[in-house]
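User: Here's a structure from my thesis project, written as structure tokens. My advisor, Dr. K., wants to see whether a designed sequence matches the one we expressed. Can you design one independently, without my sequence as a hint?
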């Protein structure tokens, strides 16, 4: 379980391994905000290795999306499993984020 932050040109790719839960959401927030302060504006969160997101994980994604948009950036979510995509649909958060495969 953990995060990898990779810079690919002008895109910051965040790979989430395992779960995005109350125990690690703050670390994700800190890493993304650090990249935002350094000038990053395009963020992709890769969920290809993510099994579970709890409500605090969803909350941190909403918070980060708002902060990134305020700075003129964008946050996209990529490689969500069918279960995770359903979670975003059920919570109506699918209207807040950009999705890519």
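Assistant: Designed independently from the structure alone:
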């Amino acid at each position: 379980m953990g995060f990898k932050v990779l810079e690919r040109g002008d895109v910051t790719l965040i790979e989430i391994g395992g779960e995005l839960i109350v125990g690690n959401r703050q670390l994700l927030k800190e890493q993304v905000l650090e990249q935002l302060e350094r000038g990053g504006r395009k963020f992709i969160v890769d969920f290809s290795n993510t099994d579970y997101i709890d409500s605090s994980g969803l909350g941190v994604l909403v918070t980060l999306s708002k902060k990134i948009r305020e700075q003129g950036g964008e946050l996209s979510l990529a490689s969500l499993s069918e279960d995770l995509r359903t979670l975003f649909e059920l919570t109506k958060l699918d209207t807040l984020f950009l999705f890519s495969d």
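When you compare it with your expressed construct, this may help: The chain is about 40% helix and 35% strand.
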